[in-house]
Design brief:
Blueprint (H helix, E strand, L loop, with lengths): L2 E6 L6 E6 L6 E7 L2 H5 L7 H15 L2 E6 L8 H14 L3 H8 L9 H9 L4 E5 L3 H9 L3 E5 L8 H12 L7
Parallel strand pairs: 3-4, 3-5, 5-6
Antiparallel strand pairs: 1-2, 2-4
Helix pairs in contact: 3-4
Pathway: Cofactor biosynthesis; riboflavin biosynthesis; 5-amino-6-(D-ribitylamino)uracil from GTP: step 1/4
EC number: 3.5.4.25
Pfam family, one: GTP_cyclohydro2
Length: 177
């Protein structure tokens, strides 16, 4: 299986694009925001690592697809502010949405315009998006991409992850059980 990698230049929502195999309209696509803690360090506090693992398994099983890996650590807040939010969460018993609000950090400042443009540049106008995030779907549809949602449900690895998923559902309006 051939994997092509390209940079996705954008000062706020850039990253990298991995094209796996021969893609065509209606292929699987995962737009993933970097999470150092979950992706690389395998933290049990969130579902980021398990979501990325599951998405890659599904794409590889299918034999083709696209991973758009955006440098949007901490829902676009950056690694330092994310660490501040996590510290506040620990100290005050809050979820990260509440911690961000307390610290004056936007709950979610991510955009998906660069990702949508990249999909069109790849010749894709119709995709199956691996996501639970309605904001990603809405942004892509507003850009003209036809999106079918493929839910990406993982099992929480800890009670903290379970609380994080509840906060994503309640504050981020993610489609989660």
């Amino acid at each position: 299986m051939v994997i092509r990698v390209a940079e996705l230049p954008d000062p706020h929502d850039g990253g990298h694009v991995l094209v796996i195999g021969d893609i065509a309209d209606n292929c699987l696509v995962r737009i993933h925001s970097r999470c150092l803690y979950g992706d690389a360090l395998q933290s049990d506090d969130c579902d980021c690592g398990p979501e990325l693992d599951l998405a890659m398994d599904l794409i590889q099983t299918e034999g083709s697809g696209v991973l758009i890996y955006l440098e949007q650590e901490g829902r676009g807040a950056g690694l330092i502010r994310k660490a501040m939010g996590l510290h506040t969460s620990e100290q005050a018993g809050l979820d990260t949405y509440e911690s961000y609000a307390r610290l004056g950090i936007p709950r979610d400042s991510r955009r998906y315009d660069a990702a949508a443009k990249q999909l069109f540049d790849l010749g894709l106008s119709r995709i199956r998006l691996l996501t639970n995030n309605p904001a990603k779907v809405d942004a892509l549809r507003a850009s003209g991409v036809r999106v079918s949602v493929v839910p990406l449900v993982t099992e929480p690895r800890s009670e903290r992850a379970r609380r994080y998923l509840r906060a994503k559902r309640d504050f981020g309006l993610h489609w989660l059980p």
